[in-house]
Write the structure tokens for this entry.
Amino acid sequence: MSDPGAGEDEDGGWGAHAQRRPALDTRPLSAWWVIFAGPVVGLLFVLTDHMLRATVSLGGALLLAAVLRVALPGSGVGGIAVRGPVVDVVLLVLLGVAARVSGFTLDLAAR
């Protein structure tokens, strides 16, 4: 039989004196939803064979994510914060620039 201090009443039921579990450490997805629009628009451009616009919008979303990672406080970044701030920003800028450069330099015309 379990002891009454573990959350159960003396009669074995769950009563008003039950211990509360600590809140889960979850991050809100606040800034992530702003970034989500870029890939959606990029995929719509891919479906309509506008590859330059698709790469520019995807690269722009990554660069916007880097700006938001720098500008927002730790609690407001949400799903953008994966590693340390410096690593996140450097990787997001590199990927954003790479996406934009590839869009302007590659021959992405539909054949």
